Records
---
Amino acid sequence: MEDQTQAFKSGFVAVMGRPNVGKSTLINALLGQKVAAVSPRPQTTRKRQMGILNLAPGAKDDPANAQIVFVDTPGVHRPRHKLGELMNQEAAETLEDSDLILFVADASQPPQEDDQILFDLLSGLRRPAPVILALNKIDLIDADTLQGRKTAFAEGIPRAQIVPISATTGSQLDNLLAEIVDRLPEGLPFFPEEQVTDLYERDIAADLIREAALNLLRDEVPHGIAIRIDQFTERNRHGAYIEATLFVERESHKPIVIGKNGKMLKQIGTAARQEIEAMSGRKVFLRLRVKVRKNWRNDDKILRRFGY
Ligand code: GDP
Ligand code: MG
């Protein structure tokens, strides 16, 4: 009898795309669990993030036959400060180290200047991995518009396989997964099957605190916040104890983040704690403080300390 078993496939998929196209939403939808920080504001995801998806061929109890390791690359943009430069370098390295590149674009708009920067980055890679272009947000446009967008984006990355999707409605996500698995190399799983993410929990916690702060502060402290996790201790059945510092760039931002009688900081802490508890499935005690660190964006030493 012929052997019907398919070879196991596994690989690293670098997710790239300009801010706000829906990368985090897509990863979360594919993983079915909140792993990356999703926010209506651009650029909340500054760190490399990984989610691991184990795919089985059909029935629910089938053993996995593919493992996709998603790497969420930092945003790429024309560098205006040191942080921008470091992020672009890191992005290029992530792309070159991956087995497949998943370029996420917003189908509701024509290619933007920031997409062009990514096209340039892709064509300049030393080791070009296959590219899938996920044309996201098709729920917002009609069929004719989609056709035009396909043509426009194909000009930017001629070698890409284009897959129209909607991360929020879930439309065509199965198709996207099939196209991804098709292009993965044969190989054993990199991580044990039950492991969904290997992102350090403290990094996720930092992202969730930053997301909570940005959501609550709106435009009052524009992007000038960095989070440092000072302590992350397991207390077994009592959950986890987390201490974190929110760094702001200006003295005048500190009272805004703290709020009257500490009200704002308390709100940020509550929102972040709930997200961290939802993510980790256990109780969390979260303690926040605020400090001023002028020009942290341009300070190499500080950026390294924050892990950029
Ligand atoms: P990222 O910066 O690329 O990670 O983008 P996010 O995942 O944070 O998404 C940015 C915004 O686009 C959020 O408000 C999402 O809800 C929204 N969004 C993401 N995917 C879709 C989609 O398929 N359709 C629509 N209508 N909105 C989407
Ligand atoms: Mg994101």
---
Amino acid sequence: MNKPNDLAISATDLNDIDSNASHDNHFNSILNARLSRRNWLRGSAVTAATAVMGSMGLSACGGGSDAAAVTPTPTPTPTPEKLLAFTAVPKSLADVVSVPAGYTATALYALGDSLRAATPAYKNDGSDTDFDNRAGDHHDGMEYYGLSAAGAPLASGAERGLLAMNHEATTDEKLSSHFLHVNGGTTSLPRPAAEVDKEVAVHGLSVVEVKKTGSAWATVNDSAFNRRVTPLTDIEISGPVRGNALVVTKYSPTGTKTRGTINNCGTGKSPWGSYLSGEENWAGYFTRSATDNAARGDKSVASLNRYGRSQGAGSRHGWETGGSDDKYARWNLSKIGTSANGSDDYRNELNGMGYIVEMDPYDKTRAIRKRTALGRYAHESAAFSVPAVGQQLAVYMGDDSRNEYIYKFVTTAVWAAADANPADRMATGDKYLDSGKLYVAKLAADGTGQWIELAMSNALIQAYSAYKFADLADVLVNARLAADAVGATKMDRPEWCSVNPANGEIYYTLTNNSNRTVNPSGSSQLAPDSANPRAYTDMKGSSAQNGNPNGHIIRFKEGTGAAAATSFTWDVYLFGAESGADASKINLSNLTADQDFSSPDGLAFSPYTGICWIQTDDGAYTDVTNCMMLAAIPGKVGDGAKSTLNYATAAGGNLAVDTFIGKKPTADTLKRFLVGPVGSEITGISETPDGKTMFINIQHPGENTALANIGDPSKYTSQWPANAGYGAGKRPRSATIVITKNDGGRIGS
Ligand code: FEO
Ligand code: CA
Ligand code: CA
């Protein structure tokens, strides 16, 4: 970690008053209180005099008990907090976490860290075992859940809490997760059981208690809350798909449960205080025989093809070869049994993956549930509309693959204030997430859009020739096919989404899309359109990157009906680009060197400061900078202008694409806050409810390290976090970091 200096601008934090004033421990109540009282200063410089006053004020606060004997002086007017007052962090290729002067970032919870006293400290040399009781790998989405000083659930708890997080995947090469094995592991089939067991166990979720002592945060080893969830944990299927023939397996002949969760990516925090996790690239872990189409001979072939498992597909790690035990067999999707319904094999196993998974982070005795009403696809985050009593809730979601769709789920139940602090969080999840309507987005060139319901009542779904849907469960399991049927808009890889608490607008990162081209050929290539308007070439050294290599961020404003609206308007908030790129075609948001970024992925509005945090998972600009996190104060849909991009076609014509570009950012509304170590993506955004501590994840540092170099640390492309003084060994490790401001202020000020 870099060592920040102490030259930060000091500012008295008016909003701190709010964080201690509420007796309601529900986070949305806190949020609403904050929003009603907040006083942002936008675009105004903090003067030198203000900074000095702020410093004096802080000194006085620490003045000691004899201050009571001094004649009181008039209370100075508090200096309003200025967000984004920090100095932008430059782009960097250094193998460190860089944060602004005045901030401190420290590794807190890394791959392999023990969660209990009986599991030894991580040696980080490939010999460690017992990953069921250690931090998993590839930390991704993450949420913070407060605890009281005594350790009871308390949403407003800012000095003790739980971090619930996703462990998406592992760094691998040729089947093997090479950093996990002494000599890099086995790169051919069959894979040894011991290697498979270790690789499986680093996937899933973890819950770890964290606690602040003085100014330092640490995890609490052996906390009763500490928990691992893996691809072997029993999980209930909930909602319309529960018990359906499509999810009958040898493991669950009644179609009511699945074995575990995998490739968990973005997250969500429900208004009732539960944890939501999106299952993303799960399909790649499964294999199918080269003759499985004929063995099946039914519509399941169309479903498997649409979800990325055509016959003959190999699995990412070869886990199906770990042995004869059923826990290995489940990774083989081939129809090999003789039953009519699939109760003697895993032909339907893929239908149990691809959901939003709900967990009560406070109670490990409660079953985790897959919320099938929200549809099955490559889920990223799940963002709730701002709850309003008596109104339905919306959950916004995206499907992260090239040319996939944006979705929302609207609850049947209307929001009840008492559910903000329920006696039973999972039962409250049943109430809101097991019944409702799933919609997909269709965006028009005029800046409007429609939410189209995916239901059997839709004539386009009934008449779809490529797949005959049987019932609602079939529509939900095959949401991609249903969205195809209704002509939804193909997007440039929807990643995270988040709702701006100030106005309810919905932001989606569209990370990049190599399939955008002015002259499309084949079924996967698409011409630029209004909502995905760029197709260009960016050079990375001598390598040409075509399509929309830098990505963009689109945002929606709901129409009549708010969360339940069936129409919306949209514009593009920001276009990722290099600051030196052509401002008329590529750098359409006029990003400066302090703001330029590529491949936005994580995105979340702070419920406490209102800052929009943007994180990158990039491969296009990594010749210049490692991945990063930026802080933004956006405006609103329609604050910019309509623009037309003109492309010369191969046939000699002109392709004119109208789009809507949001108001261009200034130095006061968008600023780079952090740059990560070599090879990492930045992900996971969570804060304590006082806004003063932020937790984020550094995923897969050193991911380009070759398997052949395992054992030679000098050839690891990253040695983070060991090079920052964290932990044993020199193998790079995914890790949670904690960020605080040295003057005790809120993060982003
Ligand atoms: Fe797991 Fe789409 O990132
Ligand atoms: Ca470039
Ligand atoms: Ca992601």
